Amino acid sequence: MKIQGRFFLFLSLFFLIVAIVYGYWSHETAGTVALFLAFGLSIMIGFYLSFTARRMDQLAQDNKEADVADQAGEVGFFSPHSWAPVSLGVGGALAFLSVAIGWWLLYFSAPLIMYALYGWVFEYYQGESRNQ
Q1: DSSP per residue over 67-128, as a string?
Q2: What is the DSSP secondary-structure string of 3-56?
Q3: Fewer CB in 10 Å around end: N or C, the chain?
Q4: pLDDT at position 83, please?
Q5: CA distance 12 to 42
Q6: What pTM, to 2 d.p., does this model score?
Q7: What does the pLDDT look like over 81-99, one tens digit per residue?
Q8: Could you give the 3-state DSSP secondary structure of residue 2?
């Protein structure tokens, strides 16, 4: 995490320099504000990662002599049979399509989104996967 923290702090310095130079040369408000906001966001992330890295043990990515296999291990649990993300994606696509076609389409997509979220959250509390 030390590497990521340093990367974001360097990136924040880059955004600050670019924001100052861009604001001086262009006299354009929106781009200058956007670059200063990017500076603020990257310095927050860099500070958080640097602060957290001091509290954690050294990771394999912080060791210069580490191999790829040193970081190997369980990444997390991913449901192999869930259809809820597909229905949530269809509901979200219909909701965003309602902006272009008409707001009436939102009446059909909102129940689909709610049903998909409910199914995704509670899929391991019901049915054959209850005890997993």
Answers
A1: -GGGG-S------TT--HHHHHHHHHHHHHHHHHH-GGGHHHHHHHHHHHHHHHHTTTSSGG
A2: HHHHHHHHHHHHHHHHHHHHHHHH--HHHHHHHHHHHHHHHHHHHHHHHHHHHS
A3: C
A4: 87
A5: 5
A6: 0.54
A7: 888 899 999 999 999 999 9
A8: helix
